[in-house]
Structure formats: C-alpha cells, structure tokens
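Entry 12.
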Amino acid sequence: MDERKSDSTDSLWRWMDAKRGEPGFEDALRRLVSFACAEWFRRTLGTVVSPEEALSRVVAARLPDYPVGDWLEHPGDHCGEIAGFCENAKAGPLPAGLSADFPDVLDLRGVVCPGNAVRSRLVMAGYPRGRVLEIRLDDGSPVENVPGALVADGCRIVSREKKQGFWAVFVVKPDNKE
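Predicted 3D structure (tokens):
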C-alpha cells in the first residue's frame, strides 16, 4: 500500500514508516499537520499564526480537497493524504476560503461520534479566546457528547438551541484560564 507520489516526500515517508505503531505517532501526525497549516498561511498570506490556530481554521473550513478533520480522527490511516497535504502546504496556493477570519459556525451535522468531538476540540484549540462559536450538531449522541468534551477542555457552553432538524451549541473559550 505504497502511496508515495514523488521523491520530495521520501523523508516524510521514511519517518512515518519508522514511527508507525509507536505510542504518540498519531499525536505527532496531528502536530505535523498543524505546522503544515501554519506554514501554508505564512507562505501564502505572509500571516504568522500559531499551528493550533492554523489547524483550527483549516478544519473549520471543511475544505473538500483537504478533509483534514476526517484525516485527523484516525491520522495513522491517512499517512498518504497527510504527506501529500504537507507537500502541498509547502508549495500550493491557500484555498480562498481560508483567507478570511475564523468562521462563526462549525457545521458538524452528519459527522458521526467521536469524529464530531475530535473536530470540535481541534477547532476550539485554536479558536480566539472570548469569541463565541456556534457548533451545529445532530440530535442524539452528538449533542450529548460534544459539549461535555469541550467543557473538559476548559470551554464554556453559552447556550443550546434546538433548531429545525439540528442543535446549535454556542461555545466560548474563556478569555482567561479558569
């Protein structure tokens, strides 16, 4: 199952091959993607953002060509996509949807548990403190589990509203660490 596309990713592939299955490998892949996202912003916009903020923006944007949120649910299963993404971040253009400020809405309808909790945590990790994000969730397990995961990370649930066919959960990362 060798998905290598070019010689330029060989060192990344050697690292992945050597580390695959080791404790912390999936966390290392998540960090790698976050640094690639930050490099993408720096190189294309001249904007320096933290790796957490850059990853937050990319996951929240739900880019069809780069389903980073999907990959990071089980990053070890997506080494080929991650390697290609990292290579593109070094040379490719930033998608138009990423040049704007953070979105105010994260739509996770249709994303199954625990993927919706993983994505909401990734987005909130880099989301600006004090700013409210509306997270749209399906009824059932998502609206029951995602808010608890965010509270465990130090976020505060401002409100929950039942809308037509989904839940809107409004969450904020406090200005100061409480």
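Annotation: The chain has a mean pLDDT of 88. The longest helix spans residues 25-45.
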